[in-house]
């Protein structure tokens, strides 16, 4: 399929808003304008000479008050490189002949205006997105500030799956991966665990991602269209415009589209949102590799489950298993890190509950064993 068609189809398929499409690069329309330049060269009888490389032309552009002035400078066919050194104000340019066309100005002005419109729109949209991201980050923070952190486990799971999906727009320009992520969430039933408020929060998260994807898709599509249309001009007219026109739009239309365009969605969500949420990895006991239950913090500041440390003590170990600091002998129920224990109960309620169950079973088994029962042998009546 030709690029013009693919481009229009993608804009449609990705549900880009109509008012955005209106302000995008109009590839097909610009292509028609290129044909007019080609026709003009033909009518003037210059096309043949250019095709046979008897003459060689290179563009130099300036823009003043949004009006583009292209100058088409004749250079010797065997010396492309000299044009790079020509500045429009220099006297060197006077030594070169110029070709004045009419239709080329129409094309470049149109392209310049379209690019400017598109950039202006993107700049506004980017500000809106930044607000959306900050707003969502604030909602996550509010959830964490509550004493009873409803659904925090479910959220952690959602974010973990989200990271696994690696929604990176620097490589892919479509919504299908994001839709696959949402479908996967529905399958794992994690969404059905969310209470009313949090379900609303998920809608916001969904909307945010959708908007981000749409923004980046649109931006990337336009970038490709712009590059292609400039290339097309050079290919069809055999005049050289790409280097200097790219320089012109980069210098005059450059705006601050750096925050979002430079990053993948994954990075944005990770930096601004997911990092606020406490991560289980930071609260694991290095001995049993699950959440530190009734955590004891040693003098060296390393922490472990109280039972894991007591078991070590029973084996005659008296040093911290991580740094070999000799503080283990002081381990008792008295030096529980209660603050951390409360924090973990609030932030990892499901993990703590599971660990408590395992812990309680171990204690019961040990007590039974001490009393002479084998807890693993089925009970039978003799
Ligand atoms: Zn442990
Ligand atoms: Zn230590």
UniProtKB/TrEMBL annotation:
Superkingdom of this protein's organism: Eukaryota
Protein name as catalogued: RING-14 protein
SMART domains cross-referenced by the UniProt entry: RING (SM00184)
GO molecular function terms noted in the UniProt entry: zinc ion binding
The SPX domain, residue ranges: 1-247
InterPro entries, A to Z: SPX_dom (IPR004331), Znf_C3HC4_RING-type (IPR018957), Znf_RING (IPR001841), Znf_RING/FYVE/PHD (IPR013083), Znf_RING_CS (IPR017907)
Ranges where the RING-type domain occurs: 285-324
One Pfam family, short name: zf-C3HC4
PROSITE patterns reported for this sequence: SPX, ZF_RING_1, ZF_RING_2
Signal peptide from the UniProt entry: none
Residue ranges of the TM segments: none
The entry's keywords: Metal-binding, Zinc, Zinc-finger
Protein species of origin: Wickerhamomyces pijperi (Yeast)
């Amino acid at each position: 399929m030709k690029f013009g068609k693919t481009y229009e189809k993608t804009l449609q398929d990705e549900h880009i808003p109509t008012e955005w499409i209106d302000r995008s690069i109009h590839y097909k329309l610009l292509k028609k304008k290129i044909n007019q330049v080609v026709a003009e060269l033909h009518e003037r009888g210059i096309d043949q000479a250019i095709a046979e490389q008897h003459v060689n032309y290179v563009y130099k552009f300036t823009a003043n008050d949004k009006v583009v002035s292209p100058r088409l400078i004749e250079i010797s066919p065997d010396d492309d490189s000299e044009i790079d050194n020509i500045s429009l104000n220099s006297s060197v340019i006077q030594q070169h002949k110029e070709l004045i066309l009419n239709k080329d100005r129409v094309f470049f002005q149109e392209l310049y205006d379209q690019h400017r419109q598109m950039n202006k729109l993107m700049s506004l949209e980017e500000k809106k997105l930044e607000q959306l991201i900050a707003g969502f980050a604030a909602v996550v923070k509010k959830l964490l500030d509550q004493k009873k952190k409803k659904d925090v486990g479910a959220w952690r799971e959602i974010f973990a799956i989200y990271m696994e999906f690696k929604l990176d727009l620097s490589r892919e320009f479509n919504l299908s991966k994001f839709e696959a992520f949402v479908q996967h969430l529905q399958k794992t039933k994690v969404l059905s665990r969310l209470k009313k408020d949090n379900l609303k929060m998920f809608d916001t998260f969904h909307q945010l991602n959708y908007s981000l994807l749409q923004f980046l898709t649109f931006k990337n599509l336009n970038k490709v269209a712009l590059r292609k249309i400039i290339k097309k001009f050079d290919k069809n007219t055999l005049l050289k415009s790409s280097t200097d026109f790219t320089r012109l739009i980069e210098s005059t239309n450059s705006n601050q589209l750096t925050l979002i365009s430079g990053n993948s969605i994954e990075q944005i969500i990770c930096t601004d949102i997911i990092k606020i949420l406490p991560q289980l990895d930071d609260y694991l006991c290095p001995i049993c590799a699950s959440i530190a239950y009734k955590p004891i913090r040693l003098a060296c500041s390393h922490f472990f489950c109280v039972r894991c440390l007591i078991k070590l003590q029973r084996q005659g170990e008296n040093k911290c298993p991580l740094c070999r600091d000799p503080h283990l002998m002081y381990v008792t129920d008295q030096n529980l890190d209660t603050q951390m224990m409360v924090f973990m109960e609030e932030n990892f309620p499901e993990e703590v509950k599971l660990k408590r169950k395992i812990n309680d079973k171990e204690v019961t088994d040990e007590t039974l064993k001490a009393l002479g029962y084998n807890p693993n042998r089925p009970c039978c009546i003799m």
